[in-house]
Design brief:
The chain is an alpha+beta fold and 120 residues long. Helix content is 18%, strand content 34%.
Length: 120
């Protein structure tokens, strides 16, 4: 199992979520974050005062997938998050040792399986 952490622009989220859902990978966590990377800050005027903003708003997606789903998940994120401009984001792939479903105490890859909506 791998955890994919992706920092993306807000406008890329809906297309990523929709395609992952179609692929049977609907489970993810989303956080609104701010961060800086290689892109420079931008100057903004607020009530006549100019200020430089270095921390840009992003969404952080956290998705744990089985090893066989890593490349297609990353490909989906890249397809929809890439604009070619600075600030498109980053993707990190992290090993996951185990996963446990709290409700049933199930462990391992079965925890990652999408729920059968007919029985839940």
């Amino acid at each position: 199992m791998k955890k994919i952490e992706a920092f993306i622009r807000h406008e890329a989220f809906d297309a990523i979520r929709d395609q992952l859902d179609e692929m049977g990978l609907p489970s993810m966590s989303i956080s609104e974050v701010k961060g800086s990377g290689r892109q420079k800050g931008f100057t903004e005027s607020y009530r006549g005062a100019k200020t430089t903003i270095f921390l840009r708003p992003k969404l952080k997606l956290e998705i744990v997938v089985d090893d066989i789903d890593v490349e297609r998940t990353v490909s989906t994120i890249l397809t929809h998050a890439h604009s070619g401009e600075p600030g498109d984001g980053k993707i990190f792939i992290i090993p996951v040792e185990d996963a446990i479903r709290v409700r049933t105490s199930e462990r391992g890859a079965v925890v990652l399986a999408a729920h059968d909506t007919a029985t839940t």
